[in-house]
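Can anyone check this?
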Amino acid sequence: MVVNSKDIADRIVEAILAQKLMPGARLGEQALSMLFDCSRTLVREALMQLAARGIVQVSSRRGWFVVQPSKTEAREAFEARRVIETGLIRSAGAMDKTTLKRLKQHIQQEKTALKQDDVGRRSFLLGDFHVCLAECLGNQLLADTLRDFTARTTLIAMLYQSSHDAVKSCQEHIDIVQALERGDKETAERLMAEHIGQVQSALQINAAPADPLAELRLALAPMTPAKAASPKPGKSAAGNTSSSTSPSTYLGALL
C-alpha cells in the first residue's frame, strides 16, 4: 500500500490517542521510513506537519519527539476544547436520524471496548467521540482541530497520571447525545462543559509548583552546633571576644 505524508501523520496521531506513543517518545526518521516502506523525505514531511500542529517537536541534535506538554499548556488545551465544543453545540442545528445513529454506534463501540478491557482502543474511542461529534455537527475544520487538541490532552493525561474513570466518561457521552436527541442544546452544552471539566480536574495539573531547590536546600542547611558550657559574657569558649559567624550567613540560609 502506497502511503503519503498525511497517512503517516494520521497514524501517529491515532497511536497517541490510543496511548501507544508516550510523551517524549522518539520518532526516528529511518525507523518510520522502514515501517511505512517509504522515503525519509516523506516521513520528514509528515513530522513537519505534526510539528506545525503542536504534536511533535524537533531537536537539531536529537531528532524528532512526541511533545511533553507543560502544565500551562495543559490548562490552555482543555480551555480551547471547552470553548470549541460548547460553541459547536450552541450553534448546531437539529440533528437528523442518520447523524444520531452514527453517534450511538460510536458509543456502542466505546461500551464494547470497555467490556473487553481494551485500553488502547478504549482510549482512542473516548477521545475520538469528540471528533465524531464535531463532524456530526457539520464542521469538518473544527473536527480536524479537535483531533489535534484531543491528542494533546491525551498526552497530558498520560503525563500527569489521570485517574479519570473511563466508564464515567462513556456515560457522560451518552448523556450528551441524549440531550442532543431531545433537541435540548442548552443541557447538551452544559453537560459538555462539565464533562471536559471533570476530565481536567482528574489530572494533577493544578498543584502548587514544587520547590526546585528543595533537595539542595535540605542538604546545605546549617548544622546544629553541639551544646557546650556557656562562656563568660562577651567571651568565646577560648577566652577571646566572641566573633562566631551567624548561621544566617551560611550558604544554606541563602537558598
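Reply from J.R.: I decoded it. DSSP finds eleven helices and two strands in the chain.
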